[in-house]
């Protein structure tokens, strides 16, 4: 490989912004999550009053939409500005987590969790409303829906997941695959990118299957090679499913 290309790609990876594209695209999530966690930790440490914390998060949410409206081509290192919006979703989980476990136990909540995504997806397919959210490229299209839909869908997925894991066999399988979640996250995109370049095709089913099956297989192979496990999984020990 040309040394200039290698140095350019390395610089792009370190710099971030719009350059976290192609095979590097998955890294924008990692840097954004890190910055979001650091900001949230600083916020809750420096400001003890929860109402004031929420007020700061609301300001960041507004700034996120101001940026995407007036500076849609902003190129901030590590996609750090995406944390303005990510803070809202992260904080929502932080504040409501204590009551979620109790909330999930009600069957009416489970029924709503099934109905709500169905209603939203049907409405989108029937063009009753148009909605798109792409945090990586600062595409926030609706001030209200950017808050309601992600939080509603997340609550639905969490509720459905709560009931799914009550099935012991399913829970065991999902827990086992869950141990490989980082491998799946880092590898699903480049694997599908290579497949699309080779075949010129990409479907949702293919994306999901290739993005899970191949990383799981590679994880199993890597976990059985000591040096590879140290280099790529960062551990000498085998994790156990809960």
TrEMBL record:
Domain of life: Bacteria
Segments crossing the lipid bilayer: 20-43, 50-66, 78-96, 108-131, 143-164, 176-195, 207-232
Protein name: Acyltransferase 3 domain-containing protein
Swiss-Prot/TrEMBL keywords: Membrane, Transmembrane, Transmembrane helix
The UniProt record lists the keyword Transmembrane helix: yes
